[in-house]
Write a structure and sequence with these properties.
Layout lengths: L1 H6 L4 H9 L2 H15 L14 H22 L3 H11 L5 H15 L2 H12 L5 E4 L15 E5 L4 E5 L7 E2 L10 E9 L5 E10 L12 E5 L12 E5 L2 E4 L8 E3 L5 E3 L5 H36 L19 H33 L5 H35 L11 H8 L9 H10 L2 H12 L17 H6 L7 H4 L2 H24 L8 H24 L21 H21 L1 H6 L7 H16 L3 H6 L5 H4 L10 H10 L14
Helix pairs in contact: 2-3, 3-5, 6-7, 8-9, 8-10, 9-10, 9-17, 9-18, 9-20, 10-11, 10-12, 10-17, 12-17, 13-16, 16-17, 16-18, 17-18, 18-20
The protein binds flavin-adenine dinucleotide.
The site of flavin-adenine dinucleotide has 21 residues, from α6, β1 and α12.
Length: about 650
């Protein structure tokens, strides 16, 4: 690894600062890291022999230790974000700090917030978000838990009337949380079902943590990953809560039992909040890919199998094999692409917030951004899950061992396809509300897109003659490696498929028969955005990307050697995605069949060019060994020593003859 590091064409530290936003932020991260590195409890590999219960109990200790360190070092909220990012494990308090607090901020009245938020922030109460039931998740309206208003006592009575109505899955619900925000059907005194609303419910005693009467919770058992968290179930039998425990920011339940809308839940506010949550999901995909590729790249240097061109005397690092480069370096490019995608979304978020939410223009931008963010959530989590598994396999047999850090990373990550909007359901919803389709229709008929964001400009109308004349003229691999060329290919692909779907729907095709096509346009839209984001980070002045006259002056904040390597990654990301979906691109007829081989040749060349920088590119992610928890991905490359030591320390190896022998 040391030799590899000496080959790099750029200084990884410069790239780390770029990723972190500033050298100061990197220093802050490392200051927190030095404190955490002194904590033996945070050595992840210690948990690899533990079962679900053991992992959960360890996670509680982590929470306790972090709380003590927070007080000792007076860590701010920003520092705490760094802390959890550095620990990078599922612990139950994350549910309190994230979903529970977020829901209070969105749904509780000012007075309720004043009562509950300080307690939750200090972990004086620990909350969870209990929406999903055994029988219903995506379809929230189908929730069966009831909250019946009792005017005589001014209370609500909560019940889970059937097996399918039992809450199932909420994180931290099983054993940790002492309060929950429970989603239930509100039943008014006359028996009317008024819809699904959130209610604050105390689950456990604040004195000894025992369950309160009528409340039954438990852990739902071991999962693919995230086993430090007690995802739980909750059954309720005639549990009474005061009316004041209904979260009533947007609706009021009056003393006489009437439900009044207090304020229209501001759709724009919902969009902004969701946009922010999705920025985190995209950034989280980049983080997971960074972690996985750090392990896979370093191990692919240390691991030697076969020689180049059949040499039997000298074995090469497996990263010298082309297919290994393809499987490992492409995810590195995705990690960088999704980093810049998240950054671009964040800028958009700040622009929308600072623009004020009232303006009509902001409103339409919000709708566009919301559709893009939903599309990106589904897209990046899908790509990332696939790439993590690809990299796990790229570690060969050792990738199957938990000591590699890969199975736990994969197990923890793949839930992102399901939570915060199941990917396919969300794609359907983005399609059903028809934001993409509607916008396409508007832009096609109005023909002007001044108020549209760059990423929707591909929807502007073009004449048949323009379309006919618009053919890619690239004749060589280096010509297709031009962002102006491949970005246009992504635009044309997205425009073509949305146009096809629009035509089908206009001709009366039922939406239910268009699900697969909707997913195709959602993917094309998201992928275009990701490519835009990467290119824009490198060439911020070229706002008319696909024009030959676009200003391709490199970003001033990126040192030239770093810019060169990022440009290669950008090309690799775009062209490998293009090759993976070549059929969709060819249908759009901007590219012709001759461009497939050119794009593949460009990818092959890029892999060669990036190979010497592989280790430096993952070093730049600046992930400490403690967080990797991997014998394969260690900074010093002492893979076999670590594997042997970890195996020898295992509980089965404590005795010569196993107790089971008897
Ligand atoms: C690790 C983890 C943590 C979780 N934490 C929480 C939590 O803290 N609180 C909480 O309340 N819940 C939590 N959940 C539950 C989670 O939110 C739901 O599992 C998720 O919303 C998906 O719903 P579902 O399980 O009902 O899936 P379903 O909707 O039943 O999906 C099953 C399949 O049907 C498909 N499908 C369903 N409807 C459609 C449609 N209209 N069009 C196309 N395809 C469709 C889906 O794509 C999927 O393939 C958690 C789940 C996991 C795995």
């Amino acid at each position: 690894l040391a030799r590899e590091r000496s080959l790099a064409s750029f200084t990884p530290r410069h790239l780390t600062h770029l990723l972190d936003g500033s050298a100061e932020h990197t220093e802050r991260v490392e200051a927190v890291r030095r404190i955490l590195d002194r904590e033996p409890l945070l050595d992840k590999s210690a948990s690899y022999h533990l079962d679900h219960e053991g992992q959960y109990l360890r996670a509680l200790k982590v929470m306790e230790r972090v709380r003590a360190l927070r007080e000792e070092h007076r860590w701010s909220a920003g520092d705490m974000n760094i802390v959890w990012q550095e620990i990078y494990e599922g612990v139950p308090s994350l549910l309190n700090d994230d979903l529970f607090l977020k829901t209070l901020r969105d749904q509780a009245t000012d007075e309720q917030q004043k009562n509950w938020i300080p307690l939750a922030k200090n972990w004086a109460i620990l909350g969870c978000y209990a929406q999903t039931e055994m029988g219903h998740g995506s379809n929230v309206r189908g929730i069966e838990t009831t909250a019946t208003y009792l005017p005589a006592t001014d209370e609500l009575e909560l019940n889970t009337p059937s097996l399918s109505s039992i809450k199932w899955w909420p994180g931290a619900l099983g054993k940790t949380a002492n309060v929950a925000i429970v989603f239930a059907q509100l039943v008014l005194a006359d028996g009317t079902r008024a819809g699904v609303f959130p209610f604050m419910l105390q689950l456990r005693s604040f004195v000894d943590h025992t369950l309160l009467p009528g409340v039954e919770t438990g852990d739902i058992g071991p999962k693919i990953g995230f086993n430090g968290v007690d995802n739980g179930y909750l059954a309720l039998r005639s549990v009474r809560i005061p009316r004041a425990n209904m979260l009533q920011r947007h609706n009021e339940l009056t003393r006489s039992g009437e439900l009044r809308r207090r304020s229209q839940m501001d759709q724009r506010l919902v969009y902004v909040t969701l946009l922010y949550a999705r920025v985190n999901i995209v950034a989280g995909a980049s983080t997971a890919l960074a972690q996985g590729s750090t392990i896979a790249v370093r191990y692919s240097i240390v691991r030697r199998q076969f020689g180049q061109d059949g040499s039997t005397t000298t074995e090469s690092p497996v990263l010298d094999h082309q297919s290994q480069q393809h499987r490992v370096l492409t995810p590195v490019s995705e990690a960088y692409a999704f980093h810049f995608t998240g950054q671009r979304m964040l800028q958009l978020y700040h622009r929308l917030v600072s623009a004020g939410l009232a303006a009509d223009e902001a409103k339409s931008l919000l709708a566009e951004s919301h559709a893009t963010a939903s599309a990106l959530k589904a897209y990046v989590t899908d790509v990332t899950s696939g790439s993590l598994e690809q990299m796990r396999r790229a570690c060969g047999g050792h990738g199957y061992s938990r000591f590699s850090g890969m199975p736990d990373l994969l197990g923890m990550y793949v839930q992102n396809n399901t939570v915060e909007g199941e990917n396919h359901v969300m794609a359907q919803q983005a399609g059903k509300s028809r934001v993409l389709i509607k916008r396409y229709q508007q832009l096609q008929s109005s023909g002007h897109g001044a108020e549209t964001t760059t990423d929707y400009r591909y929807m502007l109308p073009v004449t048949t003659e323009q379309l006919e004349a618009d053919r890619c003229t690239a004749m060589r691999a280096d010509e297709i490696r031009d962002p102006r060329v491949y970005l246009h290919a992504f635009e044309r692909r997205a425009a073509h498929h949305i146009g096809m779907l629009h035509r089908r729907l206009s001709q009366g095709a039922p939406f239910a028969e268009c699900h697969v096509d909707v997913e195709r346009i959602v993917r094309a839209h998201a992928e275009l955005y990701a490519v835009y984001s990467f290119v824009e980070a490198l060439y911020p002045h070229a706002n008319t990307w696909t024009s030959a006259s676009a200003d391709m002056t490199p970003a001033a904040n990126i040192a030239p050697p770093v810019h060169s390597v990022l440009r290669r990654l950008c090309d690799l990301f775009a062209l490998s995605r293009l090759v993976a979906n070549l059929g969709d691109h060819l249908e759009a007829s901007y590219l012709q069949s001759t461009h497939g081989p050119l794009a593949r040749a460009a990818v092959r060349r890029l892999l060669q060019e990036l190979r010497p920088d592989a280790v430096a590119l993952v070093d730049a992610f600046n992930i400490p060994d403690r967080r990797l928890g991997s014998a394969l991905g260690r900074w010093d490359g002492r893979v076999y020593e670590a594997m042997a030591a970890m195996a020898q320390a295992g509980p089965l190896n404590r005795t010569d003859v196993t107790t089971g022998y008897q």
